[in-house]
Amino acid sequence: MVLKNHIKAILGMLLLPLWISCSDDFVDVDSFDEDSENYFNSEEDYELALIAAYDMLQSTYLNAMLGEIASDNTLAGGESATDVPGIQEIDDMVHTPVNQQLRDIWSWMYAGVNRANYILEFRDKTDFPGKERILAEATFLRAYYYFELVKWFGDVPLAVDQRLLFGDQDVVPRTSASEVYDQIEADLTYAAANLPYTAFETGRVTKGAAQALLGKVLIYREKFQPAAQVLEDLINNGPYELVADYSTLFENDNENNVESVFEVQYTDVEGAGFGCLQCSEGNVAVGFNGIRNYSGPLFESGFSFNVPTAEAYAAFEDGDLRRDVAILDIEAWAAANEGVSYVEGYEHTGYYNRKYIARQGDLNTGDANLTNPNNYRAIRYAEVLLLAAEALNRGGINDGRALGYLNQVRNRAGLADLSLGGGALTEAIYQERRVELMGEGHRFFDLVRTGRAAAAIPGFQAPKNELFPIPSIEIELAGNRWEQNPGY
């Protein structure tokens, strides 16, 4: 079994026993029902809880999609200016604390935190061989979800090895982003020390995933020396390499390959509906990104959201093999293939996010637009190389090695070596991240963390838009004790 075909589990709920006052001994007996406080009695219990913690990764499709739409890479698109208003608002940088998509990110990421913490809260209850691996995977997942939360919202409530239960919102404060980052670093360091490079099951967290994410977090904090250390250790000792043919990277038959450091697993074997998008086992973003009313070869229809801009298309150098893999020019595609038809959506640019649009050949389980099996390549080895280059360069450590890593990525794209140093090399690394990772959800946060967002994103106001607003309902549920992020 691989995690892509995982068991659905509903865990972490607190089931209260029904206490009946009765003097008859024969009815005053313990319940046979297992509740959350009396779980974790076997290895299987821990494994099922861990699968539930992995499950929330599939809801990060929204984070990846909005990480592009909020940036200068893509526009919201859709059917009209009122199609999913929350997405349109984020694109236009006019989002407010009542934005539904921001509330989804908040609640879904905290669901992931809670599921990971549920395991860690009962880490000592039952012993069995191999439990350390389960705890390390859970710890990585908690760090992954918290990294998403702190990137989007800054200071957020921090819970460690305990669930946030109903009523806790009355007493739990927002924790400084710095303290949350400290915990993320500690979690990833622990996970890296207790996981192997090769997982026993496809889709599981590995030592490499923990090292890569730790290196990225350290760069976000501008801790370049330790970031370079952990990333170069991964490069020198890990099992990863660049896939030779970039054009195959995002096809369904090339998932979990040698370049994959960590992938979010999706499957088309189970149906889904708009009433519970986070319940889908398929990659919802793929259907949202698809070509509206498409007919023709290779691709399937979608809702025409997240459409690349002409400027993003032009960001690639002449001869860059990645451009037509990352971005589909629909007019050129229609001219080259007979029988292609489609409908232009709102803010039609002529371009689509080719990495994550629906391909023909899946099961089309209903609703077909919500059940695409395309895995999300959350961390690729190419990004590890670029992160190492950035740490070495911006940390003033070694521009020669930084250039070597950068040129590995460029050469795979069919481009010549660069020979740069200092600030020029920094800009080249930033540019390489943009084109290598186009459409993968990293662009907005790259612009913010490097101080370039205001100049690049229309409507962006610094420092207000460097963070997104805390959903107002969460502040109200906390008794209005939390301050809103500045400017909202």
Explained architecture:
It is built from 18 helices and eight strands. By secondary structure, the protein is mainly alpha-helical. The protein has a two-stranded antiparallel sheet. Helix 4 (100-121) runs antiparallel to helix 5 (131-153), helix 8 (224-237) packs antiparallel against helix 13 (381-394) and helix 13 runs antiparallel to helix 14 (399-412). The chain is globular.
List the SSEs and their pairings.
Elements: H1 43-55, H2 61-69, E1 74-77, H3 85-91, H4 100-121, H5 131-153, H6 177-194, H7 207-220, H8 224-237, E2 260-264, H9 284-289, E3 291-292, E4 301-302, E5 305-308, H10 310-314, H11 323-326, E6 327-329, H12 330-336, E7 351-353, E8 376-380, H13 381-394, H14 399-412, H15 422-436, H16 443-449, H17 453-456, H18 472-477
Parallel strand pairs: 3-4
Antiparallel strand pairs: 1-5, 2-8, 6-7
Largest sheet: 2 strands, antiparallel
**First CA to last CA: what distance?**
46 Å
Strand order of the largest sheet: 1-5
Beta strands, count: 8
Give the topology string: H per helix, E per strand: HHEHHHHHHEHEEEHHEHEEHHHHHH
- The number of helices is 18
Which word captures the global form?
globular
Mean pLDDT: 93
Proportion of strand residues = 5-15%
- Would you tell me the structural class of the helices and strands? mainly alpha
Q: C-alpha Rg, in Å?
A: 23 Å
Uncertain regions spanning at least 5 consecutive residues: 4-29
Helix content: 40-55%
